[in-house]
Design brief:
The complex is a heterodimer of chains A (265) and B (268). With 265 residues, chain A is α/β, with parallel strands linked by helices. Chain A contains 9 helices and 9 strands. The N terminus and C terminus of chain A are likely disordered. Chain B has 2 domains: 44 residues; 210 residues, MetI-like fold (Orthogonal Bundle). Classes of the chains: A alpha/beta (265), B mainly alpha (268). Bound molecules: adenosine-5'-diphosphate and magnesium ion (MG). The site of magnesium ion (MG) has 5 residues of chain A, from α1.
Chain lengths: 265, 268
């Protein structure tokens, strides 16, 4: 597959890749979860990795995050090896997971400011930034609530605020919207995209839902078994989405239909 | 929280309140029955077997007016040893949880310590130390410390991997992981440990005082026993029961404040 053209509708996308995977292999015991995967994500781009459950998407994210090391090939993030140069990427990358992963003993705002405190920002400043992000995700009224007092959608919003508050160059989302009900998920996806584009974040999103992938991304990479790329394509204007959906379903294979109705990732 | 969960929560909360009132009522009834039994029995047997509740109350009044110093000595020793064991035990548990090289050695040490009977420590302390304060501190610390160490270590092992990965994604220092994740996570374990050892610790401090000190409730009880003042022994016993209840209340209070983020805990 050729390098896809820079998508229209995004302003000033520089050409250099922020994430770059080159012939990456990762196995657990005898099982090659990631087999010879290469792709780039350029600055300011939103790319979705779409694949069935078990395709190896989370493993790819872990490799990008630097919590795992590839068996072969190279992973580069902002010109660093994310595994070896663990500290060098401090504050430049933030993750929002499939579940909210909030600390139950902290209030919404205390959770949102966690990353900032870890980065050593002064308390007052961290609090101010966290409050403003809670505002942005529509949670200004819930800042002082504990996690058990928030709904699932609100928790996921806090989790997003926590990730975005550190102002990372790179945002990684692992099925962050998959566990929410349809309405909440749609609203949150739209909000996230608006924020990501407004602040020109580079985003690598992982999902097993075709709708999520198409709606949010500039570019979709469809992964088959062993994280092999089945299709890599920019997202066309709305009028051509029907065809893209069809192509993706074909690339995902016959189980795609059944996959889509599942709610777990 | 959903409305249904809220309703269920409210129902359970009010149920808890009813149960609390019931507890006080039941306690009152049981105490009245015990006093009545004592009263009846004391009419048939000599005073040195079973004194009347009135005699015990008089002895109790004497204690409260004359022997408060001993009560304070005992409570002071207890709190000091609890606090020290807590701090040292939690630190040892933390090291066990964080450092894989030191862990097996510390664990071996703690396991050996838990196997040593309290009596051995009491007798050894009498041989090894002259100062009664040192003896009692030594005994209590060695008995209590392993509970804190092991429970802290258990708490660390029970850390959800999800949360560890989450905090790791911000690339924190080891100290920050302790501060933002591990420390708050083990607070409930520390409180639970304190709750379960405080009664045991009270009994142990009395026992240690009986053997190893001249000041304190334990030594006063020994004195009362050797001079056939069973009314005083009984009065001290009642006082100790009250003390234990008071300590339990204090710990529960701490729990309510420290775990306010987890209201289910105070209901259960
Ligand atoms: N730490 C691990 N140890 C062993 N097997 C793993 C581990 N993580 C993932 N796997 C396996 O790798 C495969 C891909 O997992 P994952 O990357 O989570 O897929 P996805 O996120 O696409 O659902 C699965 O079959 C899973 O069982
Ligand atoms: Mg996954």
């Amino acid at each position: 597959m050729n390098e896809p053209p820079i998508p229209s509708g995004r302003t000033a996308i520089a050409a250099e890749p922020v994430i770059s995977l080159n012939r990456v292999v990762k196995s657990f015991a005898d099982f090659k979860v990631v087999d010879d995967l290469s792709f780039n994500v350029r600055r300011g781009e939103i790319v979705t990795l779409l694949g069935r459950t078990g395709a190896g998407k989370t493993t790819v994210l872990n490799l990008v995050m630097g919590t795992m090391r590839p068996d072969a090939g190279s992973v580069r993030v902002a010109d660093h090896d994310p595994f070896r140069a663990f500290k060098a990427l401090r504050g430049r990358m933030a993750v929002s997971f499939q579940t909210d992963r909030l600390l139950p003993w902290r209030t919404a705002v205390e959770n949102a400011e966690l990353g900032l405190l870890i980065l050593g920002r002064p308390r007052r400043e961290a609090r101010e930034i966290a409050v403003s992000w809670l505002d942005r995700v529509g949670l200004s009224g819930a800042a002082n609530k504990y996690v058990h007092e928030l709904s699932g959608g609100m928790r996921q919003r806090v989790s997003l605020a926590r990730a975005l508050a550190v102002d990372p160059e790179l945002v990684l989302l692992d099925e962050s919207f998959s566990q929410l009900d349809h309405v909440t998920s749609t609203v949150l996806r739209r909000d996230f995209c608006a924020l990501a584009r407004r602040f020109e974040k580079t985003c690598l999103l992982v999902t097993h839902r075709i709708d999520d992938a198409i709606e949010m991304a500039d570019r979709v990479i469809v992964l088959g078994a062993n994280a092999r790329i089945r299709l890599e394509t920019t997202v066309p204007p709305a009028s051509e989405l029907g065809r893209l959906r069809h192509d993706i379903e074909t690339a995902l294979g016959p189980e795609a239909e059944q996959e889509r109705s599942q709610t777990f990732g | 929280m959903t409305d249904r969960a809220m309703e269920g929560f409210a129902a359970r909360a009010s149920h808890g309140r009813v149960a609390a009132v019931g507890d006080v009522g039941a306690m009152t009834i049981v105490v009245i029955i015990i006093l009545a039994t004592m009263h009846v029995v004391s009419g048939f047997v000599p005073d040195y077997i079973m004194p009347s509740p009135v005699a015990v109350a008089k002895a109790g009044w004497k204690i409260l007016t004359n022997d408060m110093l001993h009560v304070m000595a005992t409570v002071g020793r207890l709190l000091l040893a609890l606090l020290f064991s807590m701090i040292a035990g939690v630190l040892i548990g933390l090291v066990m949880g964080v450092s894989t090289t030191v862990r097996p050695f510390l664990r071996a040490l703690v396991v050996i310590d838990t196997g040593i009977p309290a009596l051995s420590w009491i007798l050894l302390a009498v041989f090894w130390f002259k100062d009664p304060e040192v003896r009692i501190f030594f005994i209590l610390t060695l008995i209590l410390l392993p509970f804190y160490a092991l429970n802290t270590y258990d708490g660390i092992r029970a850390l959800p991997k999800d949360l560890v990965d989450m905090i790791e994604s911000f690339r924190p220092s080891r100290w920050q992981v302790v501060r933002y994740l591990i420390a708050p996570h083990i607070v409930p374990y520390i409180l639970l440990t304190t709750k379960s050892v405080v009664g045991y610790a009270t009994r142990m401090v009395i026992f240690a005082e009986l053997v190893a000190a001249a000041v304190g409730v334990g030594s006063r009880m020994g004195l009362a026993q050797s001079s056939f003042h069973i009314d005083e022994v009984m009065a001290w016993t009642f006082l100790l029961v009250l003390l234990n209840m008071a300590l339990q209340l204090v710990v529960s209070g701490c729990e309510k404040v420290a775990l306010k983020w987890r209201p289910e805990a105070s209901v259960r």
